[in-house]
Amino acid sequence: MNLSEIQTAIAKGNFSLSELNQLGEFIRSVKTVSAKAGLTVGCTVYVVQKTKRTLGTVEKINVKKAIVNMNGSRYNVPLSMLEAA
Predict the structure, then answer these.
(1) Distance (Å, rounded) from C-alpha 46 to C-alpha 20?
(2) Where are the domains of the chain?
(3) CATH class for the region spanning 39-85
């Protein structure tokens, strides 16, 4: 099943709002687990925001967030916003 088939199935699935919220939470948790599996301290990552991607280096990985050094400043970034460079 590819992405467009999944999107079509969700759109035509007649899901309730609570079911869609549960689906969104599940997707966020999968993104976090996937991001955490591919990260190590010292690796270079992109912090992905709506309109930009900023390059940074992972300094520490916590349970749900990572400390990322970007442009000389340290930020506490959710793992779901990180993408390997």
Answers:
(1) 28
(2) 39-85
(3) mainly beta
